Amino acid sequence: MRVFLPLAAVGTASLLLVTATGIGTVPAAAERRPDGTPPLVRVSHGDPYAKCTVGARSPDSVVHPGTEVEPYLSVDPRDPRRVVTVFQQDRWSDGGARGLAAGWTTDGRTFHPSTLPFSLCAPGGADYERATDPWVSTGPDGTVYAGGEGVDFTKSTRTALLAVTSRDGGRTWRNLTTTHVDEQPFFNDKPSLTADPIRKGTAYQVWDRLDNDPPGPSSLDGPGYISLTRDGGRTWSGARPFVDTGAVPNTQTIGHVIVVDRRTGTLHDFFDRITYADDLSTVVEARFETVTSADAGETWSAPVTVARDTSVPEVDPNDPAKALRDGTTLPSPAVDPGSGTLYMAYEGSDFSGGKFDSVQLVRSTDGGRTWGRPELISPRGVPAFSPSLAVADRGTVALTYYDLRFLRPGNTTTLPTAYQLATLRHGNPKLRTERRISRVFDWLRAPFSGGYFLGDYQGLVADGEGVRAVLTETDSGAPQNRTDVYTSRLRTP
């Protein structure tokens, strides 16, 4: 889910159990692009929830069958050919999807499907009408942890944080756990899940928990919450707040993501802190912050400001009435495994005078205590969206993002979009290279859900000396298959 301003029940869902349609092995051949861009492997084939009738919130609810959006991925640190991707399957117009799905491979090319049991549409799924916000991470022993959110509001107004594990690289999932659940006036949102890279069996799930009726003068409170496992996902701790927002009325956090410094074991959680006016109609202040833990998540530091959130609403530049939905307000952090340098990529309008968002990067060389000024990564003068960030083993910083460099003035019928990879050797912007890794596609073919929706995020992870990306593209002339998910292993300098 994505909450820009607090709502009484921004949700995802409805009810009735249906078994999934079986789908077979995904062909191994990468899809060759006629325009000469590197081949990508399509992860999403078929629709396991095509026959599911669960989830209609109202007559105005529209499900987009065959759509796969908002992907994330993980690579086994012991073998980069073992990859697990996760994504939303069959997006709804008013939030969430019929369910979450996964694709797994042992050779890096041939992806096999599996379903995540986070909604009633999935075989053996949890008792929630829709699911959203997929995340995945692999621990040092090969245990795969997947997380997400279950939501419903026809019988109730529940939002729940869910987690499962896989011991066979994503083929099968077990240990389905509800790490936290609430009903109105609470709303849980934007969970992520990080396996500790040096502590076997340890993983962290973090999210924001909105209270739409807090005591006192506020109309909203949205602290950060955490649950963790120390036994490989068999059990999870009770959820507890670890980032407070009570000192300033009408303040929430969003986009919590933990990265771990493998040299020291220090945890760094990044998020956006947003304060609204009294009537919640406008944002008074927004800034990205980080907190740290030196004891594996037991205690946390006071927050440190990383950068101002200067993002502006995303629209089609040639037709501002067409809203776009992307990674605004969501940080993408990473840590250099050799030096410990911390990086955070995000959308901001510092380099356009507040007109549109670009991809920006900040860094810290002192463990997150102080941060440098924003650096422009995407091309100047071109709107860019949804950055993902990773640092390869030799210190090359990699960023992926969508941009609109192919859009021509006066074109209001299509929105030509492409996915780019930028690399900075040793993190040095003067050693920046860039190349396109997707075909040019029409963003306006995407399902509409608070904007034309490819996902609030995409994924990029370190893959030894390179990186692996996962992304969403739209399909032309396919109303029953508007989007698909692709992946590729990419070399870096």
Automatic annotation (TrEMBL):
SUPFAM superfamilies: Sialidases (SSF50939). It catalyses: Hydrolysis of alpha-(2->3)-, alpha-(2->6)-, alpha-(2->8)- glycosidic linkages of terminal sialic acid residues in oligosaccharides, glycoproteins, glycolipids, colominic acid and synthetic substrates. CDD domains: Sialidase_non-viral. GO terms for biological process: ganglioside catabolic process; oligosaccharide catabolic process. Transmembrane segments: none annotated. InterPro entries: Sialidase_fam (IPR026856), Sialidase_sf (IPR036278). GO terms for cellular component: cytoplasm; membrane. Keywords: Signal. Residues 309-336 are annotated as: Disordered. Its EC number is 3.2.1.18. Residues 1-28 form the signal peptide. GO terms for molecular function: exo-alpha-sialidase activity. Belongs to the glycosyl hydrolase 33 family. This is exo-alpha-sialidase.
